[in-house]
Automatic annotation (TrEMBL):
The keyword Transmembrane helix applies. The keyword Protein biosynthesis does not apply. The chain holds residues 393 to 766 of 766 of the full protein. GO terms for molecular function: carbohydrate derivative binding; glutamine-fructose-6-phosphate transaminase (isomerizing) activity. Keywords: Aminotransferase, Glutamine amidotransferase, Membrane, Repeat, Transferase, Transmembrane, Transmembrane helix. This is glutamine--fructose-6-phosphate transaminase (isomerizing). One of its GO terms (biological process) is fructose 6-phosphate metabolic process. Residues 50-189, 221-364 form the SIS domain.
């Protein structure tokens, strides 16, 4: 049943719209509600026996390719905050190109929807040779990565057919947020923060259901952008990864050039591209970076940038500097979970752009779902 399109026209469309359910499955049995004698907590059976070693690691290294790498990047801030251990990110091919340092005292996490990506598998072999504890985060039970790692967590997002990953991305972020929660579980000072995130996780499928209602709005935006050459997406903090992933979706399926840009780097190059023609999405939902993003919007507006601002519900008039600016208002959730919400309108935009431009949604040219060769 999972592998037919139901009433949808494309697998990618179906997979975008089933995210409330895939996220529910990802979290099923793993969130403990707590009561008067037991705190709210997270249970990840696959990591249980290795938590002590993970907490004592010198470093947590997250390794992946494409969307899976972006998912790790989205979870990085919360992993850093709750684990108390330095967290680094590696694109698998780049780690191998550099033969970058991996130590016995490291815990290396291998993030892969398919569990079969050649670069990620080679990086796993390399980390095993170097003696690191290796943890798999995959969507495929029995895959090479789940078999060859010491332990792991399945994301349980259900079978993903569209070459462009959508529901696996949001489930990967949720799994890594849950990993951050279990690693930090022995720290009393962050108990309140952890409970707020767990509450946020319980409510997340509903919030995703709400953001999916933007479908028609994103179709209208796609109509407006259909003939553009290029689209920039600015993000920072929790949503730097959202900018990268939104741009990746747009370029891989709609074949429109698109770049995700770290807003903090705007003045160091990207600002030169800004004029009255180039459309720019700025992600400015509420979090600790909000004021800085407001200033980015002002600076882009001063250079006549064509702005599309993604903001928290009710912030539209606050963030938009002029009538020419378009707003995408999204439900606000706990800051570290906001990337799960914010990526959805960009997935919808990429989907509608592709259909309008007449390209193959589920099989973009030159791309494969699982890249098993180097
Ligand atoms: C390919 C797919 C992407 C995916 C990447 C990593 O490029 O087209 O959608 O993100 O591989 O795949 P993995 O299965 O390791 O997550």
């Amino acid at each position: 049943e999972q592998i037919n399109k139901g009433h949808y026209e494309h697998y990618m469309q179906k997979e975008i719209h089933e995210q409330p359910e895939s996220l529910t499955t990802t979290m099923r049995g793993r969130l403990i509600r707590g009561d008067s004698c037991k705190a709210k907590s997270v249970l990840l059976g696959g990591l249980k026996d290795h938590l002590k070693t993970i907490r004592r690691s010198r470093r947590l290294v997250f390794i992946g390719c494409g969307t899976s790498y972006n998912a790790a990047l989205a979870a990085r801030p919360i992993l850093e905050e709750l684990s108390g251990v330095p967290v680094t990110m590696e694109i698998a091919s780049d780690l191998l190109d550099r033969q970058g340092p991996i130590y016995r005292e490291d815990t290396a996490f291998f993030v892969s929807q398919s569990g079969e990506t050649a670069d990620t598998l080679n990086a796993l072999e390399y980390a095993l040779e170097n003696g690191a504890l290796c943890v798999g985060i995959t969507n495929t039970v029995g895959s090479a990565i789940s078999r060859n790692t010491h332990c792991g967590v399945h994301i349980n997002a259900g079978c993903e057919i569209g070459v462009a990953s959508t529901k696996a991305y949001t489930s990967q972020i949720v799994v890594m947020a849950m990993i951050a929660l279990v690693i930090g579980d022995d720290t009393i000072s962050s108990q309140g923060r952890r409970e707020a995130i767990i509450d946020g996780l319980f409510d997340l499928p509903n919030k995703v259901r709400e953001v999916l209602k933007l479908d028609q709005e994103m179709k209208d935006l796609a109509k407006l952008l259909v003939s553009e050459q290029s689209l920039l997406v600015f993000g920072r903090g929790y949503n730097y990864a959202t900018a990268l992933e939104g741009a990746l979706k747009v370029k891989e399926v709609s074949l429109m050039h698109s770049e995700g840009i770290l807003a903090g780097e705007m003045k160091h190059g990207p600002l030169a591209l800004v004029d009255e023609n180039l459309p720019i999405v700025v992600i400015a939902t509420r979090d600790a970076c909000f004021t800085k993003q407001q200033s980015v919007i002002q600076q882009l507006h001063a250079r006549k940038g064509r702005l599309i601002v993604m903001c928290s519900k009710g912030d539209g008039s606050l963030v938009c500097p002029g009538d020419s600016c378009r707003v995408i208002e999204v439900p606000q959730v706990e800051d570290c979970l906001q990337p799960v919400i914010n990526v959805v309108p960009l997935q919808l935009l990429a989907y509608h752009l592709t259909v309008l431009r007449g390209y193959n949604v589920d099989q973009p040219r030159n791309l494969a779902k699982s890249v098993t060769t180097q």
